[in-house]
Fold this protein.
Amino acid sequence: MGLFDIFKKSTKPYKTESLNQIYQLLFCDNLGLFKSNINFDSKPPWDILFSEPARNADLKILANDIKAESRTRVLAYNKLLAAGQKVKVKELLAVIVEVGLENGLDVLASFSDGSARYINQTEKIIVWETANVASSVLTNQLFKDSARVITQIGPWNKPRSRRSVGIACARGICACKAI
């Protein structure tokens, strides 16, 4: 079970298949999707993530590397959890907010490294890869508020609605609340 398994859906929220694929990649719970979408050339971190059998020591190094991309860290934690490894860290790695609107789904995925993805109900997308002062202020506030939510509502193990907030920690979904 991965960090974002609780977010898996059988339906596709968008009309465009490529956008549905981007949407699924936001949750970092299916390493196979990344493998089929990345030009795998045996370079880190993909060599570690795609290795079979998994090298748990290397996965732990990647998962704990605060300089690594947040999404690859989530993938490493997921692979460790799937291998039955205990994860003691309680680190907030991502906040994903979905809001079902009249014309479709809005989703914001904000990652601890300052990157973000936003998909609008009209199927427009923004990909933010490089943090700056303004985005860092917003990300820090979102993560600070999300950390408070974690302490107030705790673990979530129910299906989510199209109006939900998911908060991913190293040990799995820490909180999810229908809004």
